[in-house]
Amino acid sequence: MPLSYGGEAWLVTDFATARKVLADHARFSSDATLPGYPAFPLSSKRTIPGHFLSMDQPEHTRLRRLVAAEFSGSRVKGLRPALARNATQLVHALTEAGGPVDLVSAVAVPLPALSASDMLGTPLADRDFFLACTRDMQRHDASIAERVLAAGKMSRYLEGLFAAKRQEEASDLFSRLARSLGEDLTMAELVGVANLIIVAGLETTAGLVSLTMLSLLSDEEQGNLVRSDPDRWAPAAVGEALRYWTLVQHGVARVATCDVELGGRTIRAGDGLVVNVAAANRDPAVFSDPDRFDLRREARGQLAFGHGIHRCLGSFTAQAQSELAVAELMRRLPGLRLVNPPRGTDFLADMLVYGLRTLDVMW
Fold it and tell me: Which of 6, 87, 265, 297 could join 325 via S-S bond, C-beta 3.0 to 4.6 A?
């Protein structure tokens, strides 16, 4: 398959092969600096300190281990009461303001910012700055100069934030990491790790909330199912939205480190691969009637957050926040409905993480 940004790669579209490639970190590398790694808009041919998503073991494991416990399933379970309060606060403010309202700017975008303030220790007042930088870094059509400028702004901001946090005794994640500088990681690595967490965390949750609500408000049967028992059906709605929409739609890149037989073909060492997760999540061999949004299906095996050692670090957090927000919206506003169906320009098709720019609703 020829790539828009140059070069060629094998395209993996079926579920079984996609899962196999993502799980096999020994024979399929995530190192974007290796020859043959697919040319993606956000891939870099130089090693970026702290960006463990584009690293192999042992560096990947060393860096991810520093923050993994904060985002584990058990940790997020304990945080659910705090996450629920954030969702309740935003939905309450929405109901007080009255409709019509843009659900993206009122709930989907501020929700992860509130959680990041609690968990990471990022100032809530700087939400717009983070969002502007992350979107400039993630736009497919952004020039190299635009990405470098946005990344530089974010890095300088984070360096200042961590310098201040080294003097604090706060218990948030970034404060704890700042106090360990010089022991387990450098400032450049810490900035890279933080950058990765912020970029992925803000956009993923915002996209997941908005797309889940779009699906429910576009299908009366599915929406009524969640309205009948929000706590039971909101998790199913979020899980199905992950499968149906697949937030990172351009695929996941890998490069073979040795010759491999895969799907009846010989993949040579140095060959690039693009795992089309969106196609795998609609593989009819695994998901019946895959183009239908259906809460009753078993969607827990979906690959929207990846698979294997590189599975999205914040997946449990994003799902928990989205489930709580969807449940609260459908419980508090049973008459919630779309003002107008979104147009093509309302979707973030030009971004790394898919979602909606706006979703106008009333009740």
Answer: 87
Question: Quick one: what percent of the chain has pLDDT higher than 90?
Answer: 68
Report the pLDDT averaged over residues 94-109. Answer: 92
* b/e map 277-304, b = 16+ CB within 10 Å: bbbbbbbeebbeebeebbbebebeebbb
**Average pLDDT estimate for 277-292:** 96
User: Tokens standing for 28?
Assistant: 């399929």
On whether residue 84 sits in a domain, the answer given is yes
**pTM of the prediction?**
0.93
Q: Is residue 167 part of a domain?
A: no
Domain range for 270: 10-102+208-351
Average pLDDT, the chain: 92
Q: Does residue 141 form part of some domain?
A: no
The CA distance from 163 to 165, in Å, is 6
Q: Tell me if 363 is assigned to some domain.
A: no
* CATH number of the domain bearing residue 17: 1.10.630.10
